[in-house]
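Tip: read the tokens left to right.
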């Protein structure tokens, strides 16, 4: 099932998300819905706060990069579920990569992050892993990990850049944008309360 994606400006995107256990209700279904929602919006990652759940869970499938023209076969088979992840180490050089976010449509900016991470996490069956990820794989994980910490990629931009984007971000907050996928806007949520 495709779920609406929470737009920039919603408070849930600013909360530190909670860990979950194996008994979390309808977890399999939720994960499947998150993949459906991500593919429908042509994303490469989606974190639970983006579909309105403040829990430490995100899904990734980097094959979307290849469909957008990035030539890297290694990204074709990187489809994964991350539960209760912890970035234990970040190392290497800072490198710039043009990031976007399904919660912040039509805004893409270069963001500097370290190239390598060591991540511990559970998969969808609650098997524990501790793995090293590099490059674009690490990048998607770092971006999604930010989401469960209440951070967004625009937070990494310079003050000048942020000021330049202010009006466009405010337009997203107010729902004055068009997307090909369903979104939930903060201003609309406020009215319903
Ligand atoms: Zn995002």
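Filled-in amino acids:
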């Amino acid at each position: 099932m495709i779920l609406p994606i929470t737009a920039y400006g919603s408070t849930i995107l600013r909360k530190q998300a909670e860990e979950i256990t194996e008994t979390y209700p309808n977890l399999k279904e939720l994960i499947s819905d998150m993949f459906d929602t991500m593919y429908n919006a042509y994303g490469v990652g989606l974190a639970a706060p983006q579909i309105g759940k403040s829990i430490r869970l995100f899904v990734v499938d980097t094959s979307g990069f290849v469909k957008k023209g990035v030539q890297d076969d290694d990204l074709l088979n990187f489809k994964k579920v991350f539960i209760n992840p912890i970035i234990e180490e970040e190392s290497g050089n800072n490198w710039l990569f043009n990031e976007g976010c399904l919660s912040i449509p039509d805004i893409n900016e270069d963001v500097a992050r370290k190239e390598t991470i060591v991540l511990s996490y559970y998969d969808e069956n609650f098997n524990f892993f501790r793995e090293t990820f590099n490059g674009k794989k690490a990048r998607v994980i770092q971006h999604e990990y930010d989401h469960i910490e209440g951070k967004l990629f625009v937070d990494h931009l310079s003050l000048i850049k942020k000021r330049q984007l202010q009006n466009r971000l405010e337009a997203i907050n107010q729902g004055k944008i068009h997307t090909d996928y369903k979104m939930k806007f903060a201003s609309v949520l406020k009215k319903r309360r």
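The chain has a mean pLDDT of 95. The pocket of zinc ion is lined by residues 101-103, 143, 147 (CB under 6 Å).
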